[in-house]
Amino acid sequence: MYENSFPHKRFGLTLEFLEKHIPKTDTILDLGVENPFSVIMKNAGYKVQNTTGLDLDDDVSEIEKFNGDVVTAFEIFEHLVSPYTSLKAIKSNKAVISVPLKLWFSSAYRNKNDIRDQHYHEFEPWQLDYVLEKAGWKVVDRMKFTNPIKKIGLRPLLRKFTDRYYLVYCEKVNPS
Question: Which Gene3D superfamilies match (predicted)?
Answer without folding.
Answer: Vaccinia Virus protein VP39
